[in-house]
Amino acid sequence: MLTRSQVEKIIVVNGPNLGRLGVREPEIYGSATLEDLRSACVQWGQELGVHVEVRQSDDEADVIRWMHQAVDEKTPIVLNPAAFTHYSYGLADAAAQVTDMHIPLIEVHISNPSARESFRKHSVISPIATGTITGMGFYGYKLALEAIVHALEA
What we know:
By secondary structure, the chain is an alpha/beta fold. The protein has 5 helices and 5 strands. The model has no long low-confidence stretch (mean pLDDT 94).
């Protein structure tokens, strides 16, 4: 496992449709935007003494490439795979490379997928992730960042 002194940053990776936060289904995801999430994560990172970089893509290849980059740079990840959660074995394989290297990867979901449609109940990422946080809104990202810092200090 990495130690806190070895980590320069944590990347927060958001999958498809999360660029539409604030517009897409506000009754589920709230009215805050991706930019609001980015600002909050950067602030929470500062409070924890770590640089946080927030990314979002609707392209599965980008998200997989960011997993590879995390392995190469030994960078912990907060991952909201969004729809990729349920079917992307390519992303699952890339995420496994992260955790196989003992790099923390926390899966986050703004809503609780288990309380939604049946197809959302299955995650190909959860069995690979260091931990999973669901249903806590944006606060789940803060918990994920804290969990990574805690794991690095343990």
